[in-house]
Amino acid sequence: MRHLLTLLIGTLTVFILSPERSVGLPVTGLSLNESQNRSLQARGGQAIAGTVYDDSRKPIEGLWVELLDDAYGSIGRTRTDATGRYLFRGLSEGAYQVRVITNGVQAGETRRVEIAPDTAGAAQMVDFHLKPANEALPAPPAVSFVQDVPESARQAYEESTRLLPTNAGEALKKLQEAIALFPDYYAALTKYGFECLKSGQYDDAIAPLTKAVQVNPHGQDSRYALGVVQYNLKKLTESADTLTQMIDLAPESPNAPFARYYLGMALVKTGKPADAEPHLKKAYDQGRQSIPTDVHMALAQIYGNSKRYREAAKELELFLKETPDARDKDKIKNLISQLKAKAK
After folding, report:
1. Rounded to whole angstroms, how far apart are CA atoms 159 and 156?
2. Residues in a beta bridge with 125
3. Distance (Å, whole) CA 5 – CA 90
4. Using CA of residue 137, residue 141, residue 143, residue 144, what is the dihedral sign?
5. Cα dist. 298→6, 18, 73 in Å?
6. What span, in angstroms and rounded, lies between the C-alpha atoms of 259 and 253?
7. Dist CA 245 CA 128 (whole Å)
8. What pLDDT, in 10s, does the model give residues 89-110?
9. Residues 18, 102: contact at Cβ < 8 Å?
10. Residue 175 lies in domain
11. Residue 119: how many CA atoms within 13 Å on its side-chain side?
């Protein structure tokens, strides 16, 4: 039983932090130029390409997109470019999974695509329209923290706020200017870190968010963002510590459900399922269906591996209820039956 449970959901411990729902895939042909066509033919001829948008149809730069085989084995990954586009080339015919990895702000998503024979010179087009990971995520920073900010730095910050909706690049430059003028500028540090997080620039986000936490140890927004960045950089122990501190500071904040979710997943990945369990349960209790459905898979694995078969079956039932188009639905239903029989 344990082997079967691991077989079906064990892969989610590798990619456990990808909040996603499998959806139907509209596939159309994407014409490539002559140079790309020759490249495809030289490397096998088939490709998968597309654009990643946010919920306002704005392309998202810098997100990781991963290509997996149909058994969720990783083949490779790339980042979206300045226009939100990605491309995987040199593929053979067959079934693949294309996964957009969450950045903690937009929810991740996975889609399945099949490459048919004799499609050299064309790419299968797979676009993504991501929803916010947490609709309740507040705009940073916390307004209760007051600083005596030099006027020049304040003006640069306000200009960045004006520019951000239409020119993110210039807005970030203005935030850098504000920070250079006043290195302890909490609002600018936090906003700069959030914007780097949103665009997948995790390495660039670490320093300003770390500084923001030092400047304002009670700022839960900056601490939450820092924990998510650390998770994405696979600094799992540091992420768990940061998110624990954030939850202690603001256990009922709008960020708390996702903070508990990330904390629980970090603990699972560092081999601490018993510590992870209460956080994952609380994350779902607080956030319900705003929390990614793989929280149920993680809890099912914890319960199954500790011989709590009835609880494991219940979590898998919740997963299917909230993800009606899940892959391997029949296998999961069969596993639920086996778990219930084992619980008798």
Report:
1. 5
2. 28, 49
3. 34
4. positive
5. 11, 12, 18
6. 10
7. 34
8. 888 877 788 888 766 677 778 8
9. yes
10. 151-343
11. 22
